[in-house]
Amino acid sequence: MGVFVTGVRPRWSDMDAFGHVNHANTVTLLEEARIELLFTEAARHGVKEMAEGMVVARLAVDYLAPIVFTGEAVVVEMSVRELKAASFTLDYVVRGGREPDSPVLTRAETLMAPYNVTTARPRRLTDAERDFLAGWRAGGSGA
Fold first, then answer.
1. What's the predicted TM-score (pTM) here?
2. What is the CATH number of the domain that holds 110?
3. For a tag on the chain, would you pick the N or C end, based on fewer CB atoms within 10 A?
4. Would you give the DSSP letter of residue 38?
5. How would you class 73 by CB atoms within 10 Å of its CB: exposed for 0-12, middle for 13-18, buried for 19 or more?
6. Mean per-residue pLDDT, 13-25
7. Which residues form the signal peptide (predicted)?
């Protein structure tokens, strides 16, 4: 249905003095989930260019409930929106479990831009990248 789902496991060291995952470490959990989609899953589909240069141009996070260390993974659901020639937005929903009615702990979005590390400049998405990302649009069919 256009949603990529992966699990990321918070670490004991991610917690802060209040007993929940620190806000900065939540961003790291989002990054780990994003790598699964844009690098691992993309490469599995033959799209390796993303791993050669992709940067976060904007990040917004809504912390709805604490993420606590339980030893279990939290579930991150990601979908693509606003797919443009040289950028796209990833939407994230972080849930406390694998059940569809598990509580939503965090919602986030990142504006992503493909980047050429050799020239140190933004670049356009390739056709293969656009096709891969289009498969993960909200309401799409998945890749």
1. 0.91
2. 3.10.129.10
3. N
4. I
5. middle
6. 86
7. none
